[in-house]
Structure formats: structure tokens, C-alpha cells
Amino acid sequence: MSTPGQHTRFAPDRGLTGRMVGTMFLIGLLYVGFTGLLIALLRGAWPIIVLISGGLFVAQFWFSDKITERAMGAHRVTPEQYPQLHGAVDRLCALADMPKPRVAVADNDMPNAFATGRNPRNAVVCVTTGLLRRLEPEELEGVLAHELSHVAHRDVAVMTVAGFLGVLAGAMTRIAVYGGFMGGGRNSNDSNAAIVALVVPLVSIAVYAISFLLTRLLSRYRELAADRAAAQLTGRPSALASALTKVTGQIAAIPTKDLRQAQAYNAFYFAPALSAREAAAQLFSTHPTLEQRLAQLATISTRLGR
Fold this sequence. Notes:
This is Protease HtpX homolog. Strand 3 and strand 4 form a beta hairpin. Helix content is 67%, strand content 6%. It is mostly helical. It has one domain.
């Protein structure tokens, strides 16, 4: 088995690597600038700002797998409990020459899957019971290969960090507002306090908006990259296309209330938890359209056929 520092047999993707580096650089720059602004404006509160921002960032990165698992209702399963699922993961990891991640199942009728974890050694691949009931073995392997490629390319960790920084900007603003730090100290006059109270939330909104757009752009590309890598690894792009079509159609039939509860984690899912109407209308989707994904897989299938 390969170590986390070695390459796997998943096809490398320079486009994805470049986008990940660019996204992390820009979001990191935004975050550092926003933290610096808070320190400059709130003066005496800077130790609290640094402590909160640093502590929350480390906690989110270090415990991202456990946080995501708990939020999505996933639980680890053994080979005895789910032999077919573990067998598929074992075969794909051997084929890809990568460490086997922990395997989890979420008791949810929505057919979907996700991967999380800060690195391949701490990764978790999870499928829902709804997915297991609906897919054939080859289709399931295509979905699992897609999720394993996220782990191998390390874009799971990048998405976790990138998404968290935008949310953290908003959280720090709320802490500053409700913690009474907007006044900048007892000696600040009312006009300064008013300026600070106006500027910080506006900058926070801008940071969140830019982070949101950057992560959406990266998310759409990484899904196409994962489809490509999975199709090339398994040699069965048609199985992945079949799984995509089936999962997307079944998700559209899930009650809207259940879909909305899952939408906060769309960036991690194999297919977005959206109704057909929402998927067509969503301008800033976490995923490319089904048509784009199927067209790419059809091209790969033709290339493999030659």
C-alpha cells in the first residue's frame, strides 16, 4: 500500500491541483486580511480574535471527519456488517494502490455518498442505505471510486478548509458584535464606534461572498475531476453514468423537507440534494449539471473503446 505522501494510480489532475492551490491562496489571503482588519479596528480585543480564529480553524481541520460524520448521521461499519461494501472498497483501494479509508453508512433513504478527512490516513468514505438499496454492484463501485478519488487528490481537505474560512469570518463578526468589542474600548467616541460597527459586518459579508464563489467554482471542477478519475480507474464509465442518472432521478423524488436538511453538505455529496426545479435554477451550484457529467463520461467511454 502507498503512504499518504506517494501518488496513487488515480490519474493525476494538474487542473484540479492548480485550482486547489489558487483557491486556498486567495481564501487564505482574504482570511488574513479580514483578521488583520478586526485586530486594527477592535484594538484591545486582538488576543481574543487571534485565539478564537486560530482555535476554531485547528479544531475544524483536525476533527473535520468526525464533525461531518456526526452532522450527516454516519456510523462506522465492519466487514461483517456490510461485506459487499467493504469488498468493493478493498478492491478499489488495491487497484488504486492507496490506503483503505474507514467505511461508514448513514441511515438515510436519500441515495448518496461522500468522503471526508484531512488526509488519506484519516479519511472516511460513507454511503447511505438508500444508495446501497438502489445501485447494482458495478454502479456502486463507480460511486465509491469517485469518492476515493476525492481522498487521493486531497480535495476533501481543501474543500473543508476553504468552506470553513468563509463561515468563520461571519462567526467572528457575530462574536465581536455580541461580545461588545465594536466600541474599541471605553475611550472610543460614538462616531468611531459607529464606523467600526458598519465596516466590520460589510467586510465580513464580502469575505463570505468571495469565499462562497471560489469554493463553488472549485467544487464543480473537482466533481468533474473525480468522475474522470473514477471512470479511468475502473474502466467502466458507463457504470458511473448509470449510477449518476439513477441517483439524480431518485433524489428528485425525495421529499423537499428531507432534501433541505441535507443541502448544507451538498459540496461533499456525490450528487447534490436538490429537486429537479432547484437544480435547474441554482446559479451557484456545488456540482456541474448532470448533462455535463454524462457528456464527459461518454467522451471517456469512446476514448477507452478505441
